[in-house]
UniProtKB/TrEMBL annotation:
InterPro entries hit by this protein: GPCR_Rhodpsn (IPR000276), GPCR_Rhodpsn_7TM (IPR017452), Olfact_rcpt (IPR000725), Olfactory_Receptors (IPR050427)
Family, similarity comment: Belongs to the G-protein coupled receptor 1 family.
Role description: Putative odorant or sperm cell receptor.
PANTHER family (UniProt xref): OLFACTORY RECEPTOR
UniProt-recorded Gene Ontology molecular function terms: G protein-coupled receptor activity; olfactory receptor activity
Organism of provenance: Moschus moschiferus
A single Gene Ontology CC term: plasma membrane
Membrane topology category: Multi-pass membrane protein
Subcellular location: Cell membrane; Membrane
Protein name, entry field: Olfactory receptor
Cited Pfam families: 7tm_4 (PF13853)
Keywords: Cell membrane, Disulfide bond, G-protein coupled receptor, Membrane, Olfaction, Receptor, Sensory transduction, Transducer, Transmembrane, Transmembrane helix
Segments forming domain G-protein coupled receptors family 1 profile: 41-287
Gene3D superfamilies assigned to the protein according to its UniProt record, in alphabetical order: Rhodopsin 7-helix transmembrane proteins
Source species taxonomy: Eukaryota, Metazoa, Chordata, Craniata, Vertebrata
Length: 312
C-alpha cells in the first residue's frame, strides 16, 4: 500500500493517554468495565429483539441495528486504546491505521443514518398513527437499514480514496490515541488544504446539518402532538427524550471533532472518548430503562435463560 502512494512511512505513532502508572491502572479498569458493558448491553438488546416476536417491529429492529453499530464503532478504537495503556511506544502500522479510519467512518455514517431512520419512524408513529403500518412496513424498514449501510460506506470511501493515495514521508506522530482523517492528512508531504476542507465538509458539516435536522424534526413532532392533544404531549416528550439524548451524545462530539480546531489535545481526547465509549455504553440504558416493552422483554428473556440453566 505504501509503495502505491509513494509513502516511506510504514507506521504511525499514537498518543498515550497518560504516563502515570497509577492512572494507567485506573484507566485500564475503567475502560475495561465500560467496554464489557458495551458488549453485554448492546448484545443483550440484539438478542432480546431477535428472540421476542413482539419486538419484531420497525422501531425495535432499528434499535437492534443501532446497538450492533454502537458495538462495532466502539470496537474500532477501545480495545487498542486499552492494550496501549501499558505500552511504552504506541505504534500502529500504516495498513491498520488506514483500516481503523475507514471502519470508524463506516460505522459512524451508518449510525448517523440509523438515527435519522429512527426519527422518521417516531414521526410516522406519532403524527400519522393510522398510516404507520402501511408506511413503516417490513420492506421499508429493510430499505432504511440497507440505505444506512450504503450511505455509511459511501461516506467513508469518499474520504478514504483520497487519503490512501497521499504520500507520507515526514513526521508520523498522529497526536491522538487513534487514527482519523483530519490528523493523518496533516502528516502528508503535500499541501492538503483542499482535502482538509473536503473532510470537514463531509464529516463536520454533514454532522451539523443532520443534528439540526433531527432536533427540528423532534420539535415539529412535539408541536404536532400538542395541536392534536395536549394531554399526550408529556407522553410523546417522554418517548422522544431518549432519542434526543442519544442524538446529543452522538452528534455534539462529532461536530466538535471535525469542525472546531482544538487548541488542546485533552479536549480532543475527551470528545473522542464520549463518542467511542460513553455513548455506546449509555445507549442501551437510555433505550431500555425508558422503554417498558424492552424492560418486560429483557426480564422475560433473563427468566428463560435462568430456567433453561436450572433444567440442564
Amino acid at each position: 500500500m505504501d509503495q502505491v502512494n509513494g509513502s516511506v512511512v510504514t507506521e504511525f505513532v499514537l498518543l498515550g493517554l497518560t504516563q502515570s502508572l497509577g492512572m494507567q491502572v485506573l484507566l485500564f479498569l475503567f475502560f475495561s468495565v465500560l467496554y464489557l458493558g458495551i458488549i453485554l448491553g448492546n448484545l443483550f438488546i440484539v438478542v432480546t429483539v431477535i428472540f421476542n416476536s413482539y419486538l419484531h417491529t420497525p422501531m425495535y429492529v432499528l434499535l437492534a441495528n443501532l446497538s450492533l453499530i454502537d458495538l462495532a464503532l466502539s470496537s474500532t478504537t477501545v480495545p487498542r486504546m486499552i492494550s496501549d495503556l501499558f505500552s511504552d511506544c504506541q505504534i500502529i502500522s500504516f495498513h491498520n491505521c488506514m483500516l481503523q479510519m475507514f471502519f470508524i467512518h463506516v460505522t459512524g455514517g451508518v449510525e448517523m443514518m440509523l438515527l435519522i431512520a429512527m426519527a422518521y419512524d417516531r414521526y410516522t408513529a406519532i403524527c400519522k398513527p393510522l398510516h404507520y403500518p402501511t408506511i413503516m412496513n417490513p420492506k421499508m424498514c429493510m430499505f432504511l437499514v440497507v440505505a444506512a449501510w450504503i450511505i455509511g460506506v459511501t461516506h467513508a470511501v469518499s474520504q478514504f480514496v483520497f487519503v490512501i493515495n497521499l504520500p507520507f514521508c515526514g513526521p508520523n506522530n498522529v497526536g491522538s490515541f487513534y487514527c482519523d482523517f483530519p490528523r493523518v492528512i496533516k502528516l502528508a508531504c503535500i499541501d492538503t488544504y483542499k482535502l482538509e476542507f473536503v473532510v470537514t465538509a463531509n464529516s463536520g458539516f454533514i454532522s451539523m446539518g443532520t443534528f439540526f435536522l433531527l432536533i427540528i424534526s423532534y420539535i415539529f413532532i412535539l408541536i404536532t402532538v400538542r395541536r392534536h392533544s395536549s394531554k399526550h404531549l408529556s407522553k410523546a416528550f417522554f418517548t422522544l427524550s431518549a432519542h434526543i439524548t442519544v442524538v446529543f451524545l452522538f452528534f455534539l462530539p462529532c461536530m466538535f471533532l471535525y469542525v472546531w480546531p482544538f487548541p488542546t489535545k485533552s479536549l480532543d481526547t475527551f470528545f473522542a472518548i464520549v463518542d467511542f465509549v460513553v455513548t455506546p455504553v449509555l445507549n442501551p440504558a437510555i433505550y431500555t430503562l425508558r422503554n417498558r416493552d424492552m424492560k418486560v422483554a429483557m426480564i422475560r428473556l433473563s427468566q428463560q435463560l435462568v430456567n433453561s440453566r436450572e433444567v440442564t
